[in-house]
Design goal:
Keywords: DNA-binding, Transcription, Transcription regulation. This protein has ten helices and twelve strands. By secondary structure, it is of the alpha+beta class. The radius of gyration is 20 Å and the shape is globular. The chain starts with 15 loop residues before the first strand and ends in a 6-residue tail after the last strand.
Amino acid sequence: MTGRGSGLERPLETKETAHFWRNPALPGVDLLKARYVTHWFTRHAHAGYAIGVILSGVEEFDYRGSRHRAGAGSVVLVDPDQAHNGHAGEPGGWAYRMLYPSVEVLTEIAEELLAGRGTPYFPEPVVSSARGAALLRKAHDAAEHGDSLASSTLARAAFGTLLRLHAARLPQESTHPGDNDLAVRLAREILHERLVDPPTIEDLALAVRAKPFALIRAFKAATGLPPHAYLNTLRVARARGLLTAGVPAAQVAADVGFTDQAHLTRHFKRIVGVPPAAYQRAGTYKTEPESST
């Protein structure tokens, strides 16, 4: 073990910070600047894209059946509605800057730059792109400092660069869905409609004319999440809209089906990366690292 004061070993930085905000110059794009050490994103999916650059350390995440590691300088590209998690890939954690553009934002840019490509799709979730990484960071910096023209210009340039270099055509879904596909689609519709009073898995399976275990397997194969985790993702997505509209967190918890505000806070932070209050004020949230238990 290295002795104190030897200069050969530095203690690991354990403080976590997260700053979530929106900039009027970037409509349809949320921004997150964060450093995480023990924070663990539960498996979830976003309605839009998650695009960012790793500043230091390593993020590790499971996505599309494989585990991926993103180190400093890497660009992370996660498609909409694709289940993934996220945690530190080394003891010191990781720092990154993320942009969350809506499907509409990226589709509009893709239509301008890549005629005929349709909805953008990124086959590789971790890529090396020095120009893309630099533009993402500059766009983020400009947005953070309120430079509307620079942030909007640089963000568009960053997304355009990544689309040209790394996007592909979205795989076409089958036009002849099977029984499992139909059951999953109906089950998802029911969960969307019944956030506050969801059915049991037995009742859900009965409603879509499937067996419970078969439905769970098919649902996870289609969405990457079991029904209960998918429901929590829906609740958090709905909560984000209500918080943005200024609804108090306690009321939001009840409106989306969480038993109380504490449950909303726990699930919200595991998916979004900041608590509901920080999200609502789009300000800075800083805390000591959470317990790993």
